[in-house]
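Dear colleague,

Following up on Tuesday's group meeting, I ran the structure prediction for the two-component complex that the binding team flagged. I've pasted the input sequences exactly as they went in, so you can double-check that nothing got truncated or mislabelled along the way. The C-alpha cells for the whole assembly follow below. Feel free to forward this to whoever is handling the docking comparison.

Inputs:
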Amino acid sequence: MPNINLSSIDEGAGRKAPFAGGALTGVTVVLILILILWGSLFLYKEYYLKKNIEQAKLDYAGYVEKMKNSDSKKVIDFQKRLDVSKEAIVKGRNIKGDLIQIEGLMVPAVYLTSYAYDDATGKILLNCSGDNFNTAAKQILSFKSSGLFSQVTAGKTSLEPQSNRILFPVELKVK
Amino acid sequence: MKIKLLMAPSLIVIIIVLLIWYVYPAFTDPLTGNGVKEKAGELKKEKQLLEDAKKKSETIDNMALELNSQKMTSSRELVMEYMPESIKEYEIIDNLNYLVLKEELQGTNISVSQPVLSKTAALPALASASGGSAAADEEAKPQATLFLVDFSAQGGYEKIKSVFEKIFGLKRFNRLVSIKIDSADAQNKGSDNLKAVAVLEFAFLKESGNFSSLNDPVFSKSSFDLQTVGNIEKGKATSLMDLQVDQKGKTNPFIP
C-alpha cells in the first residue's frame, strides 16, 4: 500500500517564522526603549527644564525688583550725567586764543572795526580798517601766510570818505 | 501564525511612527519651540541672564557704596554743578553779572531763553558698548536739554577778552554759539570802548535715574569714569557763585 501522507499540518509550522522569537523580542525591546525615551524626554522637559526656566525667570524678576528699589537710581543718574559731561566738556571754543592769534598777525597800520565768530560755521569775520590799499594787502597776506587758519578769504574793499581809510572784510576759517 | 507574522512589521511601523511623530518632536520642535532641545536652550539663556543680573546687581551695589562714600562727595557736587538737574537761570544771571562786574565792564543784557524741545538731544552720551540694538541704545542715551543765553557787555578789549575766558572756564557747561565785538560808539571807531554781543549755550540734564531695564548701557560699566571729573577740575577754573536770597518779604510790592 502506497504511503499517502494525509497530514494537513504545514511543514513550516515546525520551523520558526522569520520574525518570531528573537527578532520579535528585539523589535519589542526597541519599542519599549523608544517609549521610555519618549517618556523621559517628556518628564525631563516638564519637570526639570520648565520648572528651572520658571525659577530662573522668577529669580531674574527678583533682581530687577531689587535694583529698582536700591540706590541704582542715584548710580544711573550720576553715570548718565558723567557720560553727558564727557561729551560736553570737549565742546565750545575759548575765543581768547583766537584773539591772541589775531593780535599777533595785525599789521600796525590796520585795526579791527569788528570781530565776529560763529561756532556753527567755524568762521571768524573781521572788518578791518587800513590806511591804504598796501596795508590792506599786507594784512591779508599776514593772515594767509600764518598757517593758523584753514581758509582766508578777503572781501570787497571800500574807501571810507570821512576818515579816508580803506575798509576791508576778511573771513578766517578756524582749524 | 499570520498574527505573529504581522506583529513584527507592525511593531516596526509603530516604532517609525513613534520616532517621527512623537519622539523627534519631543526632542526638537523649532516651530513651536517646545522641544527638549529648545527648552534646554531657553534654560541656558535664562541662566545666563540671571547670572548677568546677579553680576550687575553686585556692580550697582558696589557703585552705590562708592557714590555714597565721603571721597565722592566733591566729585558728585562738581558734576551736578557742571550739568545740573534743572535750568537754574538765576545761577547763570548771577554768575555772568558777577564776572562782568569783576572785570569792570558794563553789562547790557543777560537774557536766558527757555529751552525749545527741538533743541534737546544735541549732547548725547557716548554710544554704549553693550552690543544692544541701535534703537535700544538710542532710547537709553541720556539727552541734555540745551538753551540759549543772550549776553552783552561793554568795555575795553582786554576786559572783554578776559570775561569771555572766564565764561569759558565756568564750572557749568556752556558753549559760545556766536559773538560780535565792535565799537560801542559808531561815531568813534578805533577807540577801546567796545561792545560784545554774544549768544551762549547752556545745558541741563533732568534727573535720569529711572530704572528701565538691565540692558541699560549704564550697567555695562563696572565703575564710574572719573576722568571727566578730572577734566572739569583741570579745564574749568571759574567757580560758580552760590546765590542766596537773603532778605525777603514786603508789605507793598509796588513801592521801591
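Residues 118-122, 124-134 of chain B have pLDDT under 50 and may be disordered.

Cheers,
M.
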